[in-house]
Amino acid sequence: MPVFRSFFHYVWRHKRYFIAYLIVAGASRVAESVQPFFLKAITADATNGQFIHAFWIVITLGMVMLAGTLTYAFSMILSDKNVMLSAVDLQMEVMKRIHELDFSYHTEKSSGKLISIMKRGEDAFLTMYDSIIREGYAVVISLVVMLYAFWGVSPKYFWFSLTILFLAFVSSIPLVKSNMVKRKIFIGIDDEVSGVRVDNLMNFDTVKYFAKEFYEQIRLGNLLSKWNDAAQAYFFTFRYFDLIIGNLSNIAMAGTLFLAITDLAQGLIDLPQFVLIASFSAAFFPKMVSTLLTARNMAKKYGDMEQYLNVLNEPVLVKDPQNPSIVNNLSGRIKFDKVGFAYREGQPIFANFSLDVRPGETVALVGLSGSGKTTLVKLLMRMYDLTAGSISIDGVKTSDMSKSYLRGLIGIVPQDPLLFNNTLRYNLGYAKTDASEEELWEALGYAKLDDFVKNLPEGLETRVGERGIKLSGGQRQRLAIARVLLEKAKIIVFDEATSSLDSESEKAVQEAFWSLIKDEGNPRTSIIIAHRLSTVMRADRIIVLREGTITEAGTHKSLLKRSAGLYSRLWALQKGGFLGDTQMT
């Protein structure tokens, strides 16, 4: 099975610990399993009056038990090393895969569901290790020793035990299958519940703004009702398992003891042999039930593990080239050449789109909502692959570069900057992890955020909360601007980067922005996306988009001269302010 194959693939990565565990644990389990043989010998000596010899057997048994305890503890240390290193490897690969997966995957995937899958998968890996490697291995050794002992007494004990084991195994198959089906249904609803909870936690401010607390409670309550029904159906499969398998264990023990008492009464076995059979029966058959219950639990975790591993099987649509290219002596020329793209087949956003941005040029993209401005930036950064044409930087196609290298060439301030639940220092330094203290404060100064940070009790060590919730929208945006100023990339993208700033802060940030990109010693190519047209007045070229097509291009002054043009109309509508979505006609 792929899940078990993958499971052992990760376990075997650290095989020195795994093999060492099997050896040491094997010795420990043998030491535990042979104890009935000692009880047999002690009973025989006591029956024959050889109490001194029995005493030395007791001492030997104590030493064996001590050795078993010590080797067991050491085996657990080895298995802990093995399982945790293997689990870390798997977690790292899943996270790496999540990072590799395309923008489209993350826009369609519920964060709450993905978090649930990861958490359950990590727990499933540890559970499967306990079930298979630890408990399963121990039971196999105990079974071999018991069957060897039973065969030595009489083959009928051997065959009776095997028959019970076979019946227990066969009976457990439909029960486990039913358990897995019910669990799959339960997991689906549980993921929905998790998604609603995460939605409420992530958007608690929206819930409060619209006074929808009761509405959200009703929504969750209806879902929890389905969750309860699915959980009850799932839990009933456990009770069936307990009744059937538990009774088989009772039958096995009672049947074995009945055979042993009958043989003892008929003189077919002696008292020491009876003690041997009784000891093995009392030790093994409850352990058999425990193992089958563990197998049931493992089956429960099988689905969790399968979902977890499926993350690794998710296809990466935007792939890195086998032999990626780099740009030598980057100047920052960007060329969109006959670009075609559609999010959905038959609904093209761009068709035969071309634009040439010269090195050091500032190009502004203007247009109504949905005209394709932000999509162009996503295509530039290879969040999606083109359906036609190409995009190149200094003559090197972006499809020929590795995604991480390409995105490292571009500094971006997104429209809605979300921050890590960490400190201001961490979030600011994310663009340049080795930045000096002086560089950090210089970037904050450019973004007009230095006074704010200095007045905080913890300064740069202040935690910003989840998504930067402890900061205002303008502060988050200025921090994002400071971050890209710190990065000092050769190509800079501002996507509505000053939309949350007041007029005074916007003016100060714009001055810092223009001084950065128009640095005579190191000019930068920049793309500005803005609804607020006052932001783009100083751009070298303004590109007006409508439905993925360039309708006008020129400077602010030249475009205003075209009274019938879209840019001129938009300027008149907003009077130098913000172009809202209501002004789309």
Outline the structure in words.
GO terms for molecular function: ABC-type transporter activity; ATP binding; ATP hydrolysis activity. It holds the Pfam family ABC_tran. One of its GO terms (cellular component) is plasma membrane. It contains 19 helices and ten strands. The C terminus is likely disordered. A hairpin with a 2-residue loop joins strand 4 and strand 5. It starts with a helix and ends in an 11-residue tail after the last helix. The chain has a six-stranded mixed beta sheet, with helices on both faces. It is elongated. With 585 residues, the chain is of the alpha/beta class. Among the domains are: 312 residues, ABC transporter type 1, transmembrane domain (ABC transporter transmembrane region fold); 77 residues, 3-Layer(aba) Sandwich (Rossmann fold), CATH 3.40.50.300. Helix 2 runs antiparallel to helix 4, helix 3 runs antiparallel to helix 4 and helix 6 runs antiparallel to helix 10. The protein is 63% helix and 11% strand.
Look up the CATH topology of the domain at 2-313.
Answer: ABC transporter transmembrane region fold
**CA gyration radius, whole angstroms:** 35 Å
Largest sheet, spatial ordering of strands: 6-7-8-3-9-10
Please outline the major beta sheet. 6 strands, mixed
Mean pLDDT: 83
Examine the secondary-structure arrangement and name the CATH architecture of the domain at 2-313.
Answer: Up-down Bundle
Strand content: 5-15%
What percent of the residues sit in helical stretches (DSSP H or I)? 55-70%
Give the CA-CA distance, first to last residue.
59 Å
Subcellular location: Cell membrane
Keywords: ATP-binding, Membrane, Nucleotide-binding, Transmembrane, Transmembrane helix
Domain ABC transporter: 334-572
Membrane topology: Multi-pass membrane protein
